[in-house]
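User: structure tokens for this one?
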Amino acid sequence: MKYLVILIVSLGSVLTLNLYTEAVTTRSTIQSESVAVIELFTSQGCSSCPPADEVLSEIIDEAQSNGQPIYGLSFHVDYWNRLGWKDPYSAKAYSERQYTYADKQGAAGVYTPQMIVNGRTEFVGSRKSQAESVIRKALKQNSKASLEITKATVENEEISFTYNSSLSGKNFLINFALVERDLSDQVTRGENRGRLLKHDNVVRTFRTESAQSAASIRLSLSSLKSQSNSSLIIYIQEKESFEILGATALGLTNIR
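Assistant:
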């Protein structure tokens, strides 16, 4: 199996998914007692990545069928773009997020496909049995934070909502991700030339800020191809370790 590994010389600052979607309303979306947030770092330019993309989709489908609080996010990094194919979903900010994880975990470099569960445990993203094992372990642990989404509205290509968090202050970061499922692209260059690649939970918009006990947020929906296939995920992390302490989600089709 082939991977692109990048040694970290200096680290930039942290820049600011179908996923498991509960049956929710605009009044209140509250996380369960335990969660598993899966961050997949992937690229259309990497020949080892399509199997990991499939694993993420399978895990999310199974979680939705079983009513499990599993939230998947597919971050498309940009460091493969120079090798023949520019991933249309890639962003420098997503690569820098992966570099930050590597720094916090003491790794010498980054690679794709990489999965990280709850900000703590990393492994090769195509290893489904390992992913399932790590997720089962995560779901046995109670979340350390509770999150709630309220007053969500969509108007003029923008989503507005209020969140409430049991943790706040400079030691905690809260992430807001708009993710989109059922995306596919015909790749004409690079390692995956000639392949039709399919993706779920692709991060289209991502924003990070210091957590507050309550705040109103606005996010543009202009990056989305289809609002009906998109969701909002919010999750809170401990700033120093990057451990994910809680998460919740809202499907855009549930906003009335």
